[in-house]
TrEMBL record:
The keyword Phosphoprotein applies. Keywords: DNA-binding, Phosphoprotein, Transcription, Transcription regulation. Gene3D superfamilies: 3.40.50.2300. One of its GO terms (biological process) is phosphorelay signal transduction system. The modification 4-aspartylphosphate is found at residue 55. This is Response regulator transcription factor. The lineage of its organism: Bacteria, Bacillati, Actinomycetota, Actinomycetes, Propionibacteriales.
Length: 217
């Protein structure tokens, strides 16, 4: 099924570049463009959007507020936030707002197409570079007590769960983990669900942070 994408960025050149990139995929159709978050929310409410590529810094309504508004709509589309390293402080806020993935604006075209496909299929997507930056920000000032707590939480994992958690922390997709660890994607998803419970995590970044704090990344 064709994935219907809405491009949201206040820079017309960025939107044109993204449209050109996505136009080369037979599985993706750009169904609209928005120059700010308010326009994006309005377009999503009109229906027919499966995924929004969302800039963060925009006039009228920024990408954080727009993401929260879009994810609050009935049967909301997925949202992938486009970011740059100087906007990292917004990434955690975007996660809280319900974003399903993050991409750097200089991500190679093929990786953008792959990320869209993966997120629509239900797999959260975090650029490994962004994951690394987030881990560094969160753990730079981590007190020893949090490190001890992380070690205690990781100790309750099975060997297989620990292997999956390390792979998640390195930014591997479910499919990549399945191949590397010789298991089905369904089994990988089951392990990740157990990881969320045992590590008290709600997303893959928190799993990565726990593994980093425990000294396993």
């Amino acid at each position: 099924m064709t994935i219907r994408v809405l491009l949201t960025d206040d820079d017309a050149l960025v939107r044109a570049g993204l449209a050109l990139i996505l136009g080369g995929s037979a599985d993706i159709e750009v169904v609209g463009e928005a120059a700010n978050g308010q326009e994006a929310v309005r377009r999503v409410r009109d229906g027919g959007v499966d995924l929004v590529l969302m800039d963060i810094r925009m006039p009228v309504m920024d990408g954080i507020a727009a993401t929260a508004a879009i994810r609050a709509t009935p049967s909301p589309p997925k949202v992938i936030v486009l970011t740059t390293f100087d906007a990292d402080e917004y990434v955690v806020r975007a996660l809280a707002a319900g974003a399903n993935g993050f991409l750097l604006k200089d991500t190679p075209p093929a990786d953008i197409v792959d990320a869209i496909t993966r997120v629509v299929a239900g797999e959260p997507m975090l650029s490994p570079a962004i994951t690394e930056q987030l881990i560094r920000q969160v753990t730079d000032a981590v007190p020893d007590t949090l490190t001890v707590r992380a070690v205690e939480r990781v100790a309750c994992l099975t060997d297989r769960e620990r292997e999956v958690a390390i792979a998640v922390g390195r930014g591997s997709s479910n499919a990549e983990i399945a191949v590397a660890l010789h298991m089905s994607v369904a089994t990988v998803k089951a392990h990740i669900s157990h990881l969320f419970t045992k590590l008290d995590a709600t997303n893959r970044v928190q799993v990565a942070i726990a593994m980093h704090e425990a000294g396993l990344l």
